[in-house]
Amino acid sequence: MNQNLQNIKIQYLEKITNLKTDKELESLRVELFGRNGLINELFSKIKEIPNEDKKQYGFDLNQLKTELEEKLKNQTVSKTELKIENSKIENFRLPKIGHFHPITQTERQLNEVFKKLGFSVYNSPEIVTDEFNFARLNVPKDHPARDMQDSIYIKEPEYLLRTQTSAIEAYLLSQKNKDLPIRAAFPGSVFRNEKVNRSNHFVFHQYQAVVVDKGVTMKDLIGTMDLMFKTLYGSDVVVRYRCKYYPEVEPGVGPDMQCFNCHGKGCPLCKYAGWIEMGGSGMIHPKVLEAAGIDSQIWSGFAFGMGLDRWTMAQKNIKDIRTLMGGNLAYKPNEL
Amino acid sequence: MKLILSELQKFLPDLKVKATQLRDDLTMIGHFTNFFEEIDGQTVFDLDIKVNRGDCLGYYGLAKDLSVFYNIPLKNLSQKTSNTLNYSLPIKINTNDVKRIMAVKLSNLKNSASPLWLQTFLKCHGSKSINLIVDLTNYIMFLYGIPNHAFDTAKSTENLIWEINPKFKEFTSLDGTKLNLDKNILMINNPDKPLSLSFWGGEACAIDLNTTETIIEVAVYNRTTVRKNSRQLKSTTEASIRLEKDLDEELVPTAFDHLINLILENCGGQITSKVFDYYPQKIKLPEIKFDPQKASSISGIEIPNDFSIDVLNRLGCQINNSLVTPPSIRKDISIEADLIEEVVRFWGYQKIPTNQPLAFKETKDITPKEIYLIESLKDKLIKLGYDEVLTWPLVTSPVDKKTVVTTQNSINSEAIYLRQSLVPSLIQQLDQYNRFKLPSTQFFEIGKVFSKIGDQFIEKNALGIYNYSSAQLIKDLQQLNLEAEIIDNNFAEIIIDNLPKPDKYTPQLSNNTAYELTSQIITLDANIILDEKVDPQELIKKYSQIIGRDFLWKITITDIYQDSKTNKYRYTFQVSYLNLDDKKAKSLHLNSFGLI
Asked: Do residue A125 and residue B509 have CB atoms under 8 angstroms apart?
């Protein structure tokens, strides 16, 4: 801790210990935490601290503040009034309850849908090779489909942070190509070289499900996706399934949900299309199966993926995507 | 891609559907159409053309698709130019990146401003009208999706050379943008100066109203080279968007003839050279084995074989027994699955039932045990009153410079390192909470930490915890049986990969609320005096209801006193409010406790 702050801490902890009356206690509280109190004055000095030390100073100051607040709150002083039941004060606080992050809640909700259909939950590394993020998914080098995803590279062109959960699919197929049939679902963080603002983030969350079996059809895919959407959005949700291109699937299927704001009439939210694109899916491209050493003449499969962040934001009335990651997302400490 | 209905109808005179129907049909067959609007009396659609359908970056390709969908004829708008001249242009092609070029010289032209219909067409496509010759070249690019170029020979000479930049340092585009050139840029030059990039015309040979003589070229290049050049020069044009896709070399003559005829019709003049047609390697079309039954077995619904064959015929495929050769314009069709998609999209995705999901099937559980461990730890921490947070995996400073993983192109020039510990990210989260004056926080994150040893990237799962009370943190770690490292008293971190993992685990489901804080939490005190002692729990319940859930963050009774003289009881409340400014919080507070 900064030496100056350390000295203040020692000095005030001693003062608090030596308090004798309520009046003294209130006076010290104002001295420390009042509008023009010491703590606020110390916070206002942050701007004078050199940039490289600012973060540490802020941290130390917050720590000092918390400690002094705690000490002051717990200090017993002699009073003219009779203080009773002091020992029971803790009982009057409602118990602190813990909370899952909204993304975890959504992931668990989806995992539950798929577990009931016999799916395992899977994961794989976040640093991936170009091969697993692109080449094995039928996106060779310099293919224009790469423009759909700007990557964050560790070591260009070989290593990058995965841009899509399809990279988990490529890994899964390569690892489990002898364990067919496969049913697996995987939530995961993915990364793109995007500027962070209210609507976009460089890290976000996707959910993907993959089936490899004999005789898998588009009907299976669309029926399963529909079940998932109905679980998330309720049985009244209107979803259409249309032809859509993704390099790793063929035929490709694009699910669109009828805009919940305008019910298909067109509004700014759905960019006047009346529909909101919900993700991508399709029958796994034979080249993707072959790249994993799976005979596409015998086995077929489907894959679909969707983003979780926007849905979660809508659910929790969160307007700014930055809130989800290290932001101002918070939970009420008690059930009220 | 913009699409004007009346222009589309020139290719499809029998197209009679309403705009809303056309929008929905285009979308269902793969060309997502956001909306349509009226611009200067024209109905204009806004389409999202996918990267595999370079052919649909022109009206012709989209019209071909729609002619199959609606089963109506596609009209040919291009007529072959007649030419018996012997004079050959002195054009040189010194690179393998040219797939096909057609060029010809036109003389005695009279250039002018464009007629209104052409100006409106370009306006609908978001392009500016320049002059008639230039506008017609752009018109043909939008019509067929194949870029082309007109050189003013008074400025360029006839000695055009297609080559990889041999020596030029700088290039000025038609709009005056100056670009510094690298060596590997595909260009059109004359021996003395650079004239044009493959995807952007140059100022040095620009067509103006005084132009009377021009060389017109229509070309298709190696798309990878154009893509790289466009990225390298950080320049995107309507031409580069098209040229970096797979375009049809066989469509070049159609676009070329249409353009030449349009210029001659509108600007007068004559053809004054032999047509230069460079096409070194005629494309080889794939022969794909196709079983029409597969359309049914892959879609899961019955699609008649006759329909499949009919669709492929209408698409222009050559069918020889079970072998299908797609038309050259359809570069995206190369395997049987592509043909199946064609059949299913024209049969109609909407005919596939949506109410028949996969049935349950017992398959081998391949869930990694670490997932069970993570889920069980999360549940235990939640039960102990911790909140789960997610933080940035990119951080500004490394814990260990020797093993840190550094990104090459992070979105943030400062946050370039992948985190080696969760604690710095949790400190930032705490700072954020402190900025919002959140009282008594305790939270955790389970996430990846990264390091690099030699050439190996290592990812480990870590658990990071913060508790405002260091004593409670130690107690909780003991209860969880975790030997975590304590950092700065209030933080703890442990790599969890080596902990014992459960064989199975069913995580709990919850739907707890979460709040996006927009202003500081405001905490205020209130005293109430009561004649009798009351159950504090009841008092909390009562005042919670009065204040209301929307803005109430936390309510606590911090003290109860009995006055020795009056025997009355004083209850001291501490109430925290969320997403209210000072004034509104005070007003709500005073009203709720009857202090006004």
From this structure: no
Q: In terms of CA atoms, which chain B residue is nearest residue A123?
A: B368
Using the beta-carbon criterion (under 8 Å), do A99 and B388 form an inter-chain contact? yes
Nearest CB among B30, B436, B469 relative to A328 is that of B436
Say whether both B211 and B131 belong to one domain.
yes
What percentage of residues in chain B have a pLDDT greater than 90? Answer: 90
Q: Under a CB-based contact definition with an 8 Å cutoff, are residues B197 and B185 in contact?
A: yes
Distances B40 to B110, B119, B121, B433 between C-alpha atoms, Å = 28, 11, 10, 54
- Assess A146–B contact: CB distance below 8 Å, yes or no: no
pTM for the structure as a whole: 0.85
User: Are B404 and B529 in the same domain?
Assistant: no
Number of structural domains (chain A) is 2
Among B585, B596, B593, B439, which residue's Cα sits nearest to residue B527? B593
Residue with the bigger pLDDT between B586 and A17: it is B586
Predicted confidence at residue A27, as pLDDT, reads 80
3-state secondary structure at position A107? helix
What is the average pLDDT across B296-318?
A: 97
- Cα separation, B501 vs B496, in Å, equals 9
Residue B360 pLDDT exceeds 90: yes
8 Å CB contact between B1 and B13: no
* In a domain? residue B562: yes
Report d(CA A311, CA A268) in Å as an integer.
17
Nearest-CA distance B106 → chain A (Å): 35
Q: Which two tokens stand for residue B424?
A: 């710095």
Q: What ipTM is given for this predicted complex? A: 0.90
- Which of B303, B387, B539, B574 to mutate to probe the A interface, most A CBs <10 Å? B387
- What pLDDT band is residue A147 in, cutting at 50, 70 and 90? low
The DSSP 8-state label assigned to residue B245 in this structure reads S
Nearest residue of B to residue A107, measured between CA atoms: B509
The residue-averaged pLDDT of B351-357 equals: 97
Number of domains in chain B: 5
The parent domain of residue A169 ranges over 102-324
Q: What pLDDT is recorded for position B241?
A: 96
Residue with the larger pLDDT of the pair B318 and A147: B318
